[in-house]
Amino acid sequence: MKIAYVLNTYPQPSHSFIRRELRALERQGFDVLRLAMRASDAELVDAGDQDEATKTEYVLAAGGLSLLTALLLEIRNPARFWSAWTTAVALGRRSSVGILRHLIYLAEAAWVKRRCAQTGTRHMHAHFGTNSTAVALLAQALGGPSYSFTAHGPEEFDAPDALSLGEKVNASGFAVAISSFGRSQLSRWAAFEAWEKIKVVHCGIEVEKFADPAPMPGGDLRLVAIGRFVEQKGQMILLHAMAEVVKTQPKTQLFLVGDGAMREDLEAAIAALELQNNVTLTGWLDEAGVRAQLAQAHALVMPSFAEGLPMVVMEAMAAMRPVIATYIAGTPELVLEGETGWLVPAGDAGRLADAICKLDQSPMSKRVEMGQAARDRVLARHNSDTEAAKLAGYIRDVAG
Q1: Looking at the structure, do residues 233 and 328 belong to the same domain, yes or no?
Q2: Fewest CB atoms less than 10 Å from the CB: which of 13, 27, 88, 98?
Q3: Which pLDDT tens digit goes with each residue over 146-172?
Q4: Does 120 lie in the same domain as 55?
């Protein structure tokens, strides 16, 4: 079956889970057309992302004239065109970006619909309930194939009304949440009769890449945190926790993997807290580099203020490392307090420091035991092929 993935910016360093899902669906026998609105401005350091970029068609790269032509051709069916137009206007009125932006989405949708027709695409799947899902919804309204989408959070759940999240669920063939928490949030905004459309499909890991996890290292405590340098990821509170930790454990090391708008702020905080000898910023690393960091670490720290269910938590657990994470969103569905790691309140530097100290005081046998429990749990719940098979079944049910 030919399907299309409708995406906003793809590929991106922080969205490797989409690439994994795409490839797992291809192993399920799907032919996937990759349609992204735009290419990423970020440097693509991973070979997998670089390969995906060569396979992706970029809608905006077609040019304004091509998009306008595609839209004007839809006038040949006035009733359907008017219905889609009024839908775009209604979405725009509720949004923070306005009606004009949604009329641009309508033109993008017309182009996407045309490509789907040209390629024999029978279903569209979008990631994130933002503009990519708006484009898929409008393409369907213009007479294109059915659509579904995956909502991750936290962005969608921060502005569900402005994003018309409920309407997007209601009009879809089905909607995917990546956790039970996510399903509960979609249910808040969807019509009661649409609740049965909301499915849980976990983001998956490629098990073979973690087939032989490195043994738990000895030596002084070494932690790794992985993610975009943005406020919601909580790296700043982690630095304040580290400032407390090093008062009694001065050799503790933290490696921050990633990059983003907060880099200068983090560098300034490291200097102000006198953590230059304890904290290293690595920049973005490819998948092999991330696995190498996990192999050298005793645990992953995920101090986020807002999340969906972080892929790096899954990867750390697959690498047989316990996780220190905040008690938010879908994370407690995977990280079990005292069994696979520690959960702390978001924004509490003191409790985060206490958890790091508990890890440091845990004997090697306890660290290994927790790491093994973490690995067993994530492999049972987040195998990319198993989760793709669920998604494939839902797509076939809708597209026939």
Answers
A1: yes
A2: 98
A3: 999 999 999 899 999 999 999 999 999
A4: yes
